Fold this protein.
Amino acid sequence: MDGLDIPLNHILFISSLLFAIGMLGLMIRRNIIFILMSLEVMLNSAALAFVAAGAHWGQPDGQVVFMLILTVAAAEVAVGLGLVLQVQKRFKTLDMDHANRMQG
Amino acid sequence: MSKIIWLIPLMPFVGSITLMLFGKNLRRSHIGYLGVSSVGISALLTALLAIEFMQNQEVLETLVWTWMQVGSFAPGISFYFDGLTLVMMSVITGVGFLIHLFSTEFMEEDPSYARYFAYLNMFVASMLILVMADNLLLLYLGWEGVGVCSYLLVGFWYQHSANGHAARKAFIVTRIGDTAMALGLLLLFSHLGTLDIQVLMGKASQVWEVGENIPLIACLLLVCGAVGKSAQLPLHTWLPDAMAGPTPVSALIHAATMVTAGVYLIARTHGLFLLAPDAMIVVAIIGVVTSLMAAFTALMQTDIKRILAYSTISQIGYMFLALGVGAWSAGIFHLMTHAFFKALLFLGSGAIIHCLHHEHNIFKMGGLRTRMPVTFWSFMIGSAALAALPMTSGFFSKDQILLQAYQLPDLGPGLWMAGLLGALLTAIYSFRLVFVVFFGEANTEPDKDTEWRMAIPLSILCFLALVGGYFTIPVVDVFPVTGGSHPAHWVEYVSISVPIVGLVIAYFVFLNRRINIETLTTSSFGRGLGNLWLSGWGIDWLYDRLFVRPYYRLANLLKSEPVDVIYNAIVELNQLLNLWLSKSQTGRLRWYLVSMVAGLIILISLASNLGPGVLQW
């Protein structure tokens, strides 16, 4: 492969780092918008791993799955933002710890 | 006549059903007419049948209809009529009719008049089916029918829990014997393939030799049934308690008819018992031991009906003795005379109880000789017959039994002597009863005297108890001839004199008081023995400890359902776990996430440490 040759391990490290950051964000953030953003980060970290692996082994599957993840992310954001609006409307706050009325 | 033989059990049956269905709407007098006349018609038909039988000695067999058909097994509602059946039917319908008549006065003020006669009629119908049945299955139907009626009538005054207890006791104790009897029937059927009594006896004597095991077992099982029904050792405990029922019921069921069903059963299947001499010895020994035990117990009782109940047990013991020594006809003869004089005594005691405000204790009576003359003479004649004083009916039958028992090789003289001791005791306790109740100081004043409806049955039974000994019962063709030789004359003289000695002893002890038994009864040994006899040799106490209480304890243990404890524990464990786990369900999204991640980390680290191959990187 021509051009810049970044080792696979490095990319996987970045990907894991992004995943960990996203997960940490999920765990410590209370604001629902930040939670959604952290989810996006995690999705993208997984997508990055796919693309890197596909490039490493010269397979197109990695990019195919990336497209799928992109679609899922878009759909997720659409639903997620709808939920954000509803939460804001009903609880007058975006703090998820207040949205525990159903104990579930 | 032979064509309408089925009418005889049908009449009381119809009477009973009518009273059950419409009893509430009928007037008292009509209930009485209906209840008495249904048995009266049966008695009349039986009398006609008897006249015909006396002329041609014809054995009748009538199939009314086939009860059920299973393969070759087809028991019928079918009747067999011979001399033995005739004797039984005469006793049941004749004495039964008199007791029904007596009941109309005795039960006059009872609110459940119709129910009483419905049960009583049903009893007569069942008893007739029992004695007329030509196969053992139909006999068993009647056998259970009389058991049910006995239960219902003992517990007739069910408002008192003691009466209900007595009724249950009577039912359960006899049921023990009945179960054994059912097993006996099954054994006979499985070996001989039939339950028709005549066919069965014929087949049995062809298939089996004398002394084989299977007829012995079958006979012993039948004896168990007979012992339960006839209140012999060891199943006799229900009869004294059964006195809780109305007194005419005691006269009809627990003296004259039902309790002699066991005697009838053994006499009816005598062909089988001849194949099992050991079973006959058992019957004889049961009979003689029971008669002695009951006679001793009767000496000490103070309740007039319990004295008579124990004397019934004792007299049936004599019948068993007769059957055991092969004196079939003497046993049946004693059954008949006993029915007369014991029904007389029971009805007499019923009259006393009726006129004395339901007083049962003989020591609270006294001096009734002049106030209730009819009852007094009934009791005199009844007791004389019971004690077997010469020329009364009981004398002839008991004398026959004792003489034939004497002739039995080996055991004979021993049985004879035990029987004589029983006869002595019988004379003592029966005249103790008479002397205490009718002589001496008056303790209670009767508030009325007997009316004709009580007096007539008493008078007729007096007559029968006196002359019943001169009847010849037509059972010559039924039973094999026994007792050819005549025993020595001194045996006969001793047999005759013993009851008289008993009478004299009773006279000196209880009336004249020349013999003082104070010192004997107040000594510690005498009192202990007296209490033992009073409690019926402590057999009730023994059964209570041996069977009743352990059973109650077991029932109490099982009441809490110990097996269910395991299942309940499983349920409770699950509920506890549910309680714990539902605590973790808080609705806080971030907590869920943290626990999920923590779990993931634990799983991954576990998997990677478990060695290669579990998780491939």
Notes: The beta strands of chain B are 60-66, 76-81. The first strand of chain B starts at residue 60 and ends at 66.
